[in-house]
C-alpha cells in the first residue's frame, strides 16, 4: 500500500511539473532587459576593483549606486 501511495505521489509531482508553464518575462512590465538598460546606463570600470558591495537604489534620481572595493 505504501508503495502504491509513493508511486501515485511521484506521478502526481511529475505530471504537475510537466504541465506547469514558466511565465514569459517579456510580457511583464516590471522586467527590464539588459539591452534596454545599456541604452541609458553609464559604466565605470577599474582593473583594481576586486568585489562589489552596498547597493543603493535612488528612486528619485533614477540611479543604482554600487560600492566597489
UniProtKB/TrEMBL annotation:
<keyword id="KW-0732">Signal</keyword>
<protein>
    <submittedName>
        <fullName>Putative semaphorin-5a-like protein</fullName>
    </submittedName>
</protein>
<feature type="signal peptide">
    <location>
        <begin position="1"/>
        <end position="20"/>
    </location>
</feature>
Amino acid at each position: 500500500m505504501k508503495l502504491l501511495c509513493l508511486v501515485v505521489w511521484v506521478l502526481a509531482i511529475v505530471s504537475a511539473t510537466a504541465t506547469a508553464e514558466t511565465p514569459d518575462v517579456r510580457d511583464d512590465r516590471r522586467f527590464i532587459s539588459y539591452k534596454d538598460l545599456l541604452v541609458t546606463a553609464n559604466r565605470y570600470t577599474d582593473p583594481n576593483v576586486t568585489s562589489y558591495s552596498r547597493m543603493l537604489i535612488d528612486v528619485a534620481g533614477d540611479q543604482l549606486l554600487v560600492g566597489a572595493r
